[in-house]
Amino acid sequence: MAMHIFVVDDNETNLQVAGHILRKNDYRVTVLGSGRELLAQLTPADLPDLILLDIKMPEMDGFAALSHLRAKEQSLGIPEIPVIFLTADETADTEKQGFEGSPAEGYRHSDGKYYAALGAERRTRHPCGVCIGVCERGNS
């Protein structure tokens, strides 16, 4: 069975592009327009393998959505779903919150680089020179 990915973004164009690219590569995709939709869609019967989550969204930003997601996973007794933040935001505050203020597994920046936000004991520069922790370019 194909890997199931939730893509959460308030921008319809981003949802269409991400959905198209992922489906073209044989992923099963569910596109959702907000953090509230993400929480409503999450059921034990149809869990995603991965969530790509926009940070800057109205009503509930990606950081708040992730906190609510983790609480819902706990209340449902399901394992934590890997989450990768997606953002065009280049501010130091957002980057810092992505690394320190949230339990996200990854941080995909608009510069095309993938950053892993792991526990403090694993926040060391990776040999690839781009990410911190682990990445697809090599072993940590």
Structure overview:
The relative contact order is 0.13. The chain is α/β, with parallel strands linked by helices and 140 residues long. It has a single domain (4-122), classed as 3-Layer(aba) Sandwich (Rossmann fold), CATH 3.40.50. The chain contains 4 helices and 6 strands. It has helices at 12-24, 35-41, 62-76, 92-100, and strands spanning 4-8, 28-32, 50-54, 83-87, 106-109, 114-115. It starts with a strand and ends in a 25-residue tail after the last strand. Helix 2 runs parallel beside helix 3.
Précis, in short:
By secondary structure, the protein is of the alpha/beta class.
The second-level CATH architecture is 3-Layer(aba) Sandwich
Number of helices: 4
Give, in order, the helices and strands: EHEHEHEHEE
Instruction: Report helical residue fraction.
Output: 25-40%
| Major sheet summary line | 6 strands, mixed
Named CATH topology:
Rossmann fold
Structural class, by secondary structure, is alpha/beta
CATH C-level label: Alpha Beta
Quickly count the domains.
1
End-to-end distance, in Å? 29 Å
β-strand amount = 15-25%
Strand order of the largest sheet: 2-1-3-4-5-6
Counted beta strands: 6
